[in-house]
Prior knowledge:
alpha/beta; 15-stranded mixed β-sheet; Aminopeptidase; single chain
Amino acid sequence: MESNQREQLKKWWEDLLVFSPRTMGSSGEKDAVNYLVNELNNLGIKSEIQSFTYPGWELVSFTGLHIESSGEELVESYPALGSGSGKVIQGKLVEIGESVIWDMYNWPRLGVFTHHGEIAAYISARLGGKALSQTLIMNNNTKPHLFIGEDTYRLWQEQLKNQKEILVNFELEVIHTPEKEGQNICVRIPGNSDFIDKKTFKIIIGAHYDTMYNTIGAYDNTSGVAVLLGLIQWFQQQRLPFQVEFVFFGAEEFALSGSKAYVEKLTNKELEEIDLMINLDGFGRGEELECWVGADWLEQLICNKLMNSSHFSRWKMKSPPPPGSDHTPFFQKDIPVVMFTVNDQEILHSERDVPHQAMFLNMIKVLEFLKELLSQDLVELKEKQ
């Protein structure tokens, strides 16, 4: 990659971080939309705003989670996105089961019980790492819900096993609104007719531009948005046999609201015309490229490309693709999908998600690999199926 292209990629990454957090419905999110539209205009590209609605949620205040002991101890914790409001003056912890997160993780679930035996709140323990926030939306559940890390949970687990009573207190205030407006930003680039003798091969390539409320999101997903901008810039100069729609999805962190709305607006004919969806979600500090893939022919092609590529020496496939990001609504409509990520669970959805040089180097490698992937091979291999 030429130095000016590297500088532009880094500038997009750093500029977007200024607007963070970019929680759905926030001023940071609105500023990010304006910035992206302006940057696309600067590239000479016309974009289209697709509006959608979803239930709104906003964190107003959180005192932190305190353990009552000889001196109050503050425990690292985060409210769940979707949590209700509430005040717990003195709640007793009881482990009651599991919370199912994104249909992917089963995490220990604790009830916070009042002296009258009522559940006043819930606390879920993230296994395998430190505390973070996650989306946990349940109809007819208005009680507060917090997340803690594994170290805290293991300590509590041992104390509860030894019949020690654990008492906690906290206050959480959030705002629920019946309807908020979100925005997807769409860019349509037609295929090159010189190469097309049959139906146009159509690809959707997307990245979500929102963040969780508690982070600037350098990894999740400012990195993916910057790579998508770089890919759009590169694609302008190519003569490839694809019709591509690039989409910057809104409100991904709120149960994939933007990508769900995008798919729901498609007609059956439009759905049938989509040959592939590529999702870019988070390029962290690691060395391994994960490919969450949902089609045999696509997995074959990506494997072939990676085995002959110098960009990533370590990579792995995950198939069927786990849910939890914007490829999911497409996969549920039987559209071949792949999500690319350099997973960085240690910093996900927390204040620890800050810029790192390794992230930027991975962004460059992913962008260069995508240029190799987007070739005539895609069309030819798909047509053989």
